[in-house]
Design brief:
There is one protein chain. By secondary structure, the protein is an alpha+beta fold. The protein has four domains: 64 residues, Phenylalanyl-tRNA Synthetase, Chain B, domain 1 (2-Layer Sandwich); 184 residues, 3-Layer(bba) Sandwich (Phenylalanyl-tRNA Synthetase, Chain B, domain 3), CATH 3.50.40.10; 63 residues, Phenylalanyl-tRNA Synthetase, Chain B, domain 1; 191 residues, 2-Layer Sandwich (BirA Bifunctional Protein, domain 2), CATH 3.30.930.10. It is 29% helix and 28% strand. The chain is built from 16 helices and 29 strands. The strands form seven sheets. Strands 20-24-25-29-28-27-26 form a seven-stranded mixed beta sheet, with helices on both faces. A six-stranded mixed beta sheet has the order 13-12-11-8-5-16, with no helix packed on it. It has a five-stranded mixed beta sheet with strand order 4-15-6-14-7, covered by helices on one side. A hairpin with a 2-residue loop joins strand 27 and strand 28. Helix 1 crosses helix 3 and helix 8 crosses helix 10. The longest helix has 17 residues. The relative contact order is 0.09. The model has no long low-confidence stretch (mean pLDDT 92).
């Protein structure tokens, strides 16, 4: 999950008359987790579904609503103008076909604002933009640009002075010699042509999605901004633009229209949308008996606008809230606006007598055994990333299962193993003392026809004396004492484990898992300071199968 560092004093100025305690107490009820809190600084973890929370401005807007200081939706006011236009040439159609943009004027920019803009930019790149592949942002000093602009393609011999450079470089040199070029140059594929934005004086403004030109760098002296977004999907580009536009307007900038034409491009609309919901659905789902008036008030506190229309509540959704798709999303917004802290537990009216699923009982027994052995339980998402599952752990990704339309780069792949997630957990705990011992039970997925699902257990131990013998004894103790299962091990080679210190786990003649010492290169990748050992076993093919017999 992405993390942002904020200043309490700056938040207080943005929100209005509010204390530091009110802010810290309210943040969790906005769906934000406080990672650390030190005097004036607070580190907050937010959902990638809410990219507007990538800045203190966006969080301030949310807190204003929750605290009742300012409620209702944030309506974008974009002044029509004929002074700013972008013409798109057909040459970019097969490279990066879409561009959109907006003008932001008469704002105040200090070092903290620049930092917030950069944080928002990179978080949007990572989430919606899929590491700039789907869409990317360029923020420029408007007064250094001569309109109209042209979005076109050029060859790699084209030269300009890029951001953070003092000398002129060719496109080829930028791709091969600069940090951003090395990171994102592959997004342009093997094409001899690359996209570029130039102004009416033939000066380079941007080389998307790689880098801006140095001449348009935003500084504390900048008063007016030009924001451009390019991408391979028009809707994604406009979603990204809507977040930036809302944040800039809320920061005090006035917005002006950019006319865009050519090669199936059009000017951004940044339109609100309306969704209807029944009050009965809201109350039934939340277990409440809210009046229509209270529901509307709750929606307004979530920075949405709503009116009653017959038996329906019609809600107006601002453009930047593209995470809201339907009525159930509005139910969640009512819950947040009403206040999670105001919910009271009630007994179910059902008189049905049920019993615990036997599988759940076995999992509970297993978990208790692991806790008794000194391990802490972890709970990670079944959705992960290619970086965690494969790249960092040197695993083959040929059978990875990608999901469609995820808004978070960290939740794009269905996991086929639990162990990489536990190693990632260790990397986040490197500031803590050792030993660190964790386990997790959960679903993994394999690319069969159809996709298959199994329950696995993964266990990991990290400390200066961690070794194969230790982790094997944990495995044998768990299975023999907990479930009366005998297993064997057979030495194998596995890319994630140290050579000669890895083995298959065998049950009834079948391979059901792997155990060993994690390869030192993987440990180095994660900057873990001690040896790491672990195993992963299919419970579906071992423990649960033994119970069937």
């Amino acid at each position: 999950m992405p993390v942002i560092e904020l200043s309490y004093s700056r938040l207080q100025k943005l929100i209005g008359k509010v204390s530091k305690k009110q802010i810290s107490d309210s943040l969790p009820f906005l769906g934000l987790d406080i990672e650390s809190d030190d005097k004036d600084l607070v580190r907050i973890e937010y959902s990638p579904n809410r990219p507007d929370y990538s800045t203190d401005i966006g969080i301030a807007l949310g807190l204003q609503g929750l605290l009742g200081i300012k409620t209702g939706s944030i309506k974008l006011t974009v002044k029509k103008s004929k002074n700013y236009s972008i013409t798109v040439k057909p040459t970019v159609s097969k490279i990066r076909p879409f561009v959109t943009g907006i003008i932001a004027k008469n704002g105040k920019i200090d070092d903290k604002t620049i930092k917030q803009l950069m944080t928002m930019q990179e978080d949007l790149h990572f989430g919606i933009g899929r590491k700039r592949k789907k869409s990317s942002i360029g923020i420029h000093d408007l007064d250094k640009i001569s309109f109209p602009l042209t979005y076109t393609a050029t060859d790699k011999n084209h030269k300009f002075i890029p951001l953070n450079s003092e000398k002129e470089l060719s496109i080829s040199e930028i791709i091969t010699d600069t940090e951003t070029g090395k990171d994102y140059g592959h997004l342009l594929g093997q094409s001899s042509q690359v996209p570029i934005i130039i102004d009416s004086n033939k000066k380079t403004v941007s080389f998307p999605p790689i880098i801006n030109a140095g001449i348009t760098t935003v500084t504390t002296k900048t008063k007016n901004l030009f924001v451009e977004v390019t991408g391979i999907n028009k809707a994604d580009a406009e979603d990204m633009l809507s977040v930036v536009a809302t944040m800039l307007q809320s920061a005090g900038f006035t917005l002006e229209h950019v006319q865009i034409s050519g090669a199936k491009n059009s000017s951004p609309k940044l339109q609100e949308k309306k969704i209807s919901v029944d009050s009965s659905l809201i109350n039934q789902t939340l277990g409440l008996a809210l009046t229509t008036s209270k529901i509307i008030t709750s929606l307004k506190k979530s920075r949405l606008s709503a009116i009653s229309k017959g038996k329906k509540i019609v809600c107006t959704i601002p453009a930047y809230r593209f995470d809201i798709f339907g009525s159930m999303d509005l139910v969640e917004e009512v819950a947040l606006g009403y206040g999670i802290q105001n919910f009271e537990p009630t007994m179910s009216p059902s008189q049905t007598i049920g019993q615990t699923n036997p599988l759940s009982l076995q999992l509970k027994s297993l978990n208790q055994t692991m806790i008794g052995l000194g391990f802490l339980e972890a709970l990670n998402s079944s959705l992960s990333s290619k970086r965690v599952l494969y790249d960092m752990t040197n695993r083959d990704s040929k059978n990875m299962i990608s999901v469609l339309d995820s808004k978070s780069q960290e939740h794009t792949i269905l996991r086929d193993s639990i162990l990489p997630g536990l190693i990632e957990n260790l990397s986040r705990n490197i500031h803590e003392s050792y030993p660190q011992k964790m386990f997790e039970t959960g679903s993994i997925f394999n690319l069969d026809k159809p996709i298959s699902e199994k329950i696995n257990l993964a266990v990991i131990s990290a400390h200066k004396d961690a070794n194969f013998t230790e982790i094997k004894s944990v495995l044998q103790t768990l299975l023999k004492i907990g479930f009366g299962i005998q297993i064997q091990t057979k030495t194998v080679t596995n890319s994630s484990f140290k050579d000669g210190h890895c083995a298959d786990i065998i049950f009834n003649g079948n391979i059901v898992g792997v155990i060993g010492e994690i390869d030192s290169k993987i440990i180095d990748n994660y900057k873990i300071r001690v040896p790491v050992v672990g195993f992963e076993i299919s419970l579906s093919d071992s423990v649960f199968k033994s119970l069937e017999n």
